[in-house]
Amino acid sequence: MKKRILIVAPHPDDETLGAGGTAAKFAAQGHSVTVLVVCGHLPPLYKPDEFEITMKEAREAFEILGISDHRFLGIPATFVRDEPAHVLNGKIAAVIKEIEPQILLCNYPDRHIDHRVIFDSVMVAARPAGRAGGGIEILAAYETLSETHWNAPHIEPNFVPNWVVDISDVFELKRRALSSYSSQIPDFPGARSIEAVEALAKFRGTQAGFAFGEAFQIIRMKS
Description:
Blueprint: E1 4-9, H1 14-28, E2 32-40, H2 48-65, E3 69-76, H3 85-99, E4 103-107, H4 113-125, H5 130-133, E5 138-142, E6 163-166, H6 171-180, H7 194-208, E7 213-221
Helix pairs in contact: 1-6, 2-6, 3-4, 6-7
């Protein structure tokens, strides 16, 4: 049975860093994959042309991963907390209602303030009541290199994965998609470098007995 998958990304590249291989795998299997990018590189912190650059990079990455459906809310990066909670919740809930995903993947609430606010908003919008969240079979959080692994252990919540997706056959697509984000992905030893992403994928994969993996923390699951 074909599924509808929605991936919520705080910023362009988060979807590829955290769930790019999983997205490519689902898309290759014929499932419907949608990406919702909440924030953008917009003023006042960024110049308008930086937003256009990252949007172009994102579309290139989506094409490589096989994602044809994507949405951009266009909230300025690092200013998402200034959005009234009910407004942000409503914007995310509207997409959930439209897509009616069986699988919803969101970011883990880590070091980045945007990630924390958006995680909280997804939890509200995806509540298992009514049309918005009632049809969700799996709600899970992905990890984002350069943010998730910088939480303070045992002081803040720790990312503890309990689901690893085998992306061995599609890791090269994830690598190529990340390479599209030339303005965002630094050289090694940068935390989001291609080498760091490959190392994490190998680590998560070998934890579950295969070559490359993406790890998720399941929040809610029903059968």
